[in-house]
Design a protein that fits this description.
mainly alpha; globular; 2 domains; 177 residues; 7 helices
Length: 177
């Protein structure tokens, strides 16, 4: 993906004086747009095939809003990221319908532990925002509970974000030993 992004960047900047740092920033931005577009196409295609377009939109809104603020696990390549995100999405689509209120409460307690006891390299304001977002989503679960699809889907997505945060914390701890 880096080669494709470099070629596109070279084409777009042809004849323009830019530093290597500027070139790399633009290349990275183009790479990000391409990879995220591919990932969205894959997820929406699977959502359409499963007949779960509304659920797909809910999943993406929750996941994207959390992942922009949360310092969770990040794969070291686009292929790994695409695979993990797609598997997480499929798992979420297969599991949320089988949850009940008791399992949801347990999942939210685990997620609360991850959100409120973060060891994060993020800015303190982002940690606070992620905790605030967790509370807002928790309230949304309570409010939407009669529509259990949405509450269970939100809950499982938050839970998986908490797992990602714990994996990152575990990997950081292991690397420091």
């Amino acid at each position: 993906m880096e080669n494709i992004s470099s070629k596109i960047t070279s084409y777009l900047l042809e004849g323009k004086p830019v530093t290597d740092d500027e070139f790399d920033e633009i290349r990275f931005g183009i790479e990000l747009v391409i990879t995220q577009s591919i990932l969205l196409i894959i997820i929406f295609t699977i959502g359409l095939l499963l007949g779960k377009l509304l659920e797909t939109i809910v999943f993406l809104v929750i996941m994207v809003s959390l992942r922009t603020l949360v310092d969770g696990y990040h794969a070291d390549s686009f292929i790994k990221c695409m695979f993990l995100t797609t598997m997480l999405y499929i798992l979420c689509m297969l599991v949320y319908e089988h949850l009940n209120i008791y399992i949801l409460i347990i999942l939210m307690l685990y997620a609360a532990k991850a959100f409120f006891f973060q060891k994060s390299s993020l800015l303190k304001k982002n940690v606070f925002r992620s905790q605030l977002l967790f509370i807002v989503y928790l309230l949304l679960i309570v409010i939407s509970y009669p529509k259990s699809m949405i509450s269970y889907l939100i809950g499982f997505t938050i839970f998986m974000t908490g797992v990602s945060m714990e994996v990152k914390k575990y990997n950081d701890k292991r690397k420091s030993l």
